[in-house]
Input
Amino acid sequence: MKNNVLLLTAISVALITACKNEKKMTENPFFAEYSTLYQVPPFDQIDSTDYMPAFIEGIKQHDAEVAAITNDAAKPTFENTILPFDKSGKTLNRVSKVFFNMTEANTNDQLQNIAVKVSPLLSKHNDDISMNAKLFARIKVIYDKRKELKLDDQQVRVIEKYYRDFERRGANLPKEKQDQLRKVNEELSMLSLKFGDNLLAETNKNFKLIVDKKSDLDGLPDDVISAAAEAAEKDGQKGKWKFTLAKPSLIPFLQYAKNRELREKIYRGYFMRGNNDNANDNKTILANIVRLRAEKAKLLGFENFAAYVIDENMAKTPATVDAFLNKLMVASLPVAKMELSEMQKIADSEGGNFKLQSWDWWYYSEKLRKQKYDLDENELKPYFSLENVRNGMFAVAGKLYGITFTKVTNLPIYQKDVETFEVKEADGLHLGILYLDYYPRTEKRGGAWCTDFQSAGWENGKKVDPVVSLVCNFTPPTGDVPALLNWDETSTLFHEFGHALHGLFTLGKYNRTAGSVPRDYVELPSQIMENWAGEPQVLKMYAKHYKTGEVIPDKLVEKIVNSGLFNQGFVTVEYIAASILDLDYHKLNAPAKVEPESFEKEAMSKAGLIPEILPRYRSTYFAHIFSGEGYAAGYYVYIWAAVLDADAFDYFTQSGNIFNPELAAKFRKYCLAESGDDEGMIQYKKFRGQEPSMDPLLKRRGLK
Ligand SMILES: [Zn+2]
Output
């Protein structure tokens, strides 16, 4: 601990002396509440030299706040322990929110350097708190008599949440078991890193497909060919074409290349990653990860790692997830087999004298897609200008919840293309601020996400209004053509907007519970919005030609709706297969010993998987579960939430009004605003009146 203080002091001195015109304490914008309109971050006053001193001060203040709690001579109470702990770390939180959002959305070398320095400080700080025995002892005293303390339901829930957080990190274990756990954690983090590094090498370095005959490129689109020529030239192979295992290179090759042997070659390269008995082999590593996780679960008193993880989720037990996945597998497998036989017919009619294999799926499904759905993205795009789509999603939220979005131009922004909107209730009351950052930049990472600069909260008896931000990487405008979105981008915007509404509507007096939902619930608020995006009635509201204003024709609407059924058997089966594989590994009890190849084979044959489909991720490249712990025993969560969102939207449809105001009010209250007030399933049932049914999802995917 003492070393830590010295280290922090040393860094702060170094930084201050390195910066000639350093600001005084009072001038650092993170040291006090923001005085800006709506308390948004004062981006125009933030300099990158402000971050490190603010982190250091934030950690110092947080440590002092925790020390004040643990040194209190009075008996532990909710008011003197739980509440101040729940509200602690404000300065650290303020700077972290801005800093980590900027390293994602608007980074530079300076920020990256700070991130490298600050990450170990923060992880140490977090460990210091979660292993603070004095703090846990106080929480435990309150937890043990929580029922006798005349507290309200929310206060009891907050106590239980904090107690569980500490307990799940081993706070309740005797010293020698804690030491054992720390060792297991350390080993696990090293192995996860190694798994990821190996996979990176196997994907980016250890395989390439060099094509030197032009005829071997038959079927590939021009832009794919020229990208491959460029890649080859960069690799010193001018005049040839290079394909890799990166998705933008691999997928079009599998979709369009007529040369079947080469398709097989590249697909083999893909599905053998980490399984080549070379220096980057992941088999032993993942076997050790599985063993250590089983050991960790046992130390913490769980039967296996899946039980440890799922205990916190809506599903509660591995058995529930098991039954859930098997039901979906049974429903989707016949559809996938039908898709396969339709594709086989195409291959046969073309005179191909072979039985389709896994590397043929993309090629023939693409042919099937053209034949059955005839949907051309370029025909759609003019109806989906960014502005129209954005106004469309605002209008949907308006019709559901009565809220309005007014553009504001006098708030500080971190980049000139960022737009800000004030969100107001139907009666004009301020609800929050929404930042929208649409286009790719070299300073921004890929993908789309929703985040916030200020979460909805409660301070001194008053609500703290949220400041939410959506960050995307959409096709930018060119010349006098505005940004035109494809269908995927359109649904993505609605999806992220759903997360934003969750953040904007959240209510709750305690940071630990407000808006805090289990992993298998998180995608309900977002995925449900995608349903509205694709409804014919809604498309007619917003999909208007950017030049003529013409409303999207029925013919195109029909194509959008129908193409939702494309390849759904395959997509569902490969996903479920990977989820089952994940669960099977983590259902092993300690001491778990696996031989990944035979284990995977057995798990997949037990699940009934056909050889023409591989699990979406095979063991040796299943980064979601082995490179980091984020989705271990949790790869199923996406489709769990899809059952919820399909069931919830079906409730609207069945009522005869997809904007049914009563249902919208209930969804807002129980599933968004009060989402963290109780267990996920309880909140869902308050809205729905019953448990979700799997049928609406099966129907939506054409599996029933
Ligand atoms: Zn999401």
About this structure: The first helix runs from residue 2 to 18. Residues 495, 499, 523, 526 surround zinc ion (CB under 6 Å). Residues 1-22 have pLDDT under 50 and may be disordered.
